[in-house]
Amino acid sequence: MMGTDISSGNYAVMLMAQITSIQDPAQAVTAVRNLASRNADIYVIDESHSALPSNLWGILTQNQPYHVINGTVMTDIDELFITFDATLLQDFSNMHC
After folding, report:
1. ∠ at Cα 25 (24, 26), nearest 5°?
2. What residue numbers bound the domain in which 85 lies?
3. In a domain, 2, yes or no
4. Is residue 4 included in any domain, yes or no?
5. What is the widest separation between alpha-carbon atoms in the chain?
6. Beta-carbon neighbour count of residue 68 at 10 Å?
7. Residue 11's closest CA among 40, 43, 35, 54?
8. Is the pTM of this model over 0.70?
């Protein structure tokens, strides 16, 4: 269990995930709710090839716009950079450590 206050705003988290790899959806929902409650700035590159059975990534990212990216349609790193240029990269640039 995480015990550190991560709401300082001095970092962001980027995860690459695939919903079909989740073996226990109930446990996954509990885990993402726990992470989301810490107010971290979380981004997900979703590598799933099927529809989500729940709003798992929305819960994790607190439904922030442009925080869940469909990674299955990305063909190169330039597309990923363009996608995150106005969101994740700006968040990093605005951090004051």
Report:
1. 95
2. 13-93
3. no
4. no
5. 39
6. 22
7. 40
8. yes
Residue 6 lies inside a defined structural domain of this protein: no
Rounded to 10 degrees, the C-alpha dihedral 3/39/45/81 comes to: -120
Please state the domain count of the chain: 1
Query: pLDDT tens digits, residue range 6-45?
Result: 555 567 788 888 887 888 888 999 999 998 888 888 888 8
d(CA 75, CA 55): 25
Decide if 7 is inside a domain: no
Check residue 44 and report its DSSP letter.
Answer: E
Cα 23–Cα 36–Cα 66 angle in degrees, nearest 5: 90
Retrieve residue 38's tokens. 């810490």
The pLDDT confidence band at residue 1, using thresholds 50, 70 and 90, is very low
Q: Pick the most confident of 1-5, 16-20, 51-55, 58-62.
A: 58-62
Please report where in the chains the tokens 């990212």 appear, as a residue. Answer: 61
| Joined tokens for residue 22 | 């989740």
